[in-house]
Structure formats: structure tokens, C-alpha cells
Amino acid sequence: MLHSIQALRAIAASIVTLFHCVFWLHQSFGVSFPNTTYIAGLGASGVHIFFVISGFIMMWTNQDNSGNWRKFLRKRFSRIYPSYWLVALIGILLAILTGRMLPDQLTIWIGFVLLLPKGASAIIDVGWTLAYEVYFYIIFAVLIALRVSLQQRVIWLGAIFLVSTTIGVFWKPPSGIAFGLPKLITSGLLLEFAAGAVIGLFAIRSSPVPAWQGAVMVLAAILGFAVSVAVDYHAYPAIVLWGAPSILLVAGLVMLERSGWGLKLFRKLSPLGDSSYALYLIHAILIPVLVHFLPTYSSLNYLIFLAFVALLYLVNIAVAHLYYLKIETLLIRNTNNILNRAVEQHQKRSKFTRRNRAKRETRRDPQKVWPQKK
């Protein structure tokens, strides 16, 4: 994995976390710092960055054409679901202890467990984004199974998502039907995965470019995010205001690293990228709990507010990284081992069954195996 991409994952998870820190402090203390809230809202762009990164990573880490889509899905399942279920279980226990309402519909619980759009955010607010990730992985697995070339993967991804997004322009499916899947499948956000895959293809096939070209793209991305703040990002589609800069940012950082620039900085941030998924999940249930332990003030001034934001962020970073080192890595490894053993046992049983079937057929008609000489 490229260190720049790992560093960007850390940044994306961090700005999402900071956004929610500000949100929950405003909710809990009843204070209002409009400018800070507005700027912190830019943290929602971290989701768009993650989607572009996912498209890139899937191309970068699956360059072979073996067609082993089952192995791909096992690895993706081990990476996403065990940690999601564990953190969500902790979230359910915390909700019970704090008296928060839990879903009362079976369909929402089903969606919550399977990471379907309707229900994915029932316990963990950011769960809806994981539903998009899962859908993308399924489409990517199909393309792996078809053994199409890397270039054809990108073309098919772009075509599938472009067609489905076009349908979404003319048909706005209600979010409540079919677990929300029609709304997900026709969302323009899927184009960000395809854009990430395009970046991945160019990174695999093309030679490194001069560092200044990557720097120009990164600066253009930063300018794009700044423009979104200046023009009121609530008034325009997020895929335009945040999707385009996210694409430029990922492409620019990949170019910079491949040119040899910024490697020391990227390596320093890379470990936090390893725990970015843990931070992404944990902050959603940890921040609402932590705010209850903060000292109360009759009049919360701005400096104390910023200090609380920093404190919440640092605690979440520490807890998430510890969770990654002590729990998440074990979950991934053990889940992978269990699934791989299950596949091996299934293959052995299938081989044994075929062997027995061949023996029975041989007994019924020996000439099938040992034809008699004339």
C-alpha cells in the first residue's frame, strides 16, 4: 500500500471525527459557534475522499487476473464486518445503559446486521457509507470473476455506475423500498469509486511523473475545498463540490509519492492510516459518551470549546489506534483463518464426494475406467 494513501486515510477519518466532535459538543452544551460549525462541516468531505481511495485501493491491491473472486470477498468481509459488528454491539450496550432509543423494526435490524442502506446507520451513524463500500466490493468481485483485464475493469465500473447514476437523475427511488438498495444503486456517489479505480489504473500502467504535477493537483484540490466553503457547500451537490477535489487530492498524492517527494511525511502518518477504519467506527459511539463526562459550564467560551474538541479528538485517536493494535488485527486474522479453513474443508469434502462417485460409477461399469482390449 502506498504511504500517501494511508496518510490520506488518516486525514479523512480525522476530519470526519472532528466534524462529529463539534456537532456533539453543540448538541450537549447548547452553545452555538456558527462559523466553527460551518467550517467543521467540511469534515463530511472525508466520506468522498474515502470513496475515491477505495476505488484506488481495489485496483492497486488486485492487479492479478486470477479470477479468485471468492478470496477477494473473504478478505473484504474479514476487513469490514467483524469490527463493524463488534463496535456496533458495544454501541447497543451503551445505548441500553444510557437510555437511548433502539430500532423497533425488524427490517432496520436486518439492514443493520447486513450493512444494507436502510438500517446501516441504526447504531453507527456512518454505517450508511459502509453500505456503499459493500456494494462496490460486490461489483468489483463480479469483474474479478469475469477475468477481464484491468483496463476493462475500469471501463465496466465506469459504465455500470454511469448508467445507474443516469437512471437516478430521472428516477428518485424512495429510501424505504427494498432496504434502500434502489437509492444506493442510483446514487452519483458511486462515480467516486470509479474515479479512484481510474487513478489506480494510471498508477499501475504509467511511469512516475515530475513532482510538480502532483503538487499542482494537490493545490487544486485544496483550492476546490476552499471554494466549497466560500460558496456555501449546502447549496450545491456534494459530488461536485467535494467529489472533484477528492479525486484531485488522491491523484496528486499518488503522483507525489511515486515521484519520491514527501516520503518521510507520508511514512510518519501511515500508521494512523492503518487505524483509520477503527477511528471511523469507534468515534461514532465514543463521542456521545465522552461528552457526558466533560465538566459543565454555565457559559462555555470559545477557547474552552476548542479545548474540548481537541480533547475528544485525541482520546478517539488513542482509543482507535489501541483497538486496531490489540483487537482489530486479531479479528481480521482470525476471521480470515476461519473462512479459509471452511473453504479447505468444503474442498476436501467435495473432492471426497467426487472420488466416491467415480468409484461407484466404476463398479457399475468397469469399462469406463479400464476398457477391455479387443
Tally of helical runs = 14
Radius of gyration: 24 Å
What distance lies between the first and last C-alpha atoms, to the nearest angstrom? 64 Å
The total strand number stands at 0
What is shown here, in short?
This protein has 14 helices and no strands.
How does this structure look, described?
The chain is mostly helical. It has one domain (3-367). The protein is 75% helix and 0% strand. The protein has 14 helices and no strands. It has helices at 3-29, 34-40, 45-60, 69-98, 106-114, 127-145, 150-170, 181-185, 190-205, 211-230, 238-258, 263-274, 276-290, 302-364. The chain is globular and about 90 Å long. The N and C termini lie far apart (64 Å). The mean pLDDT is 91.
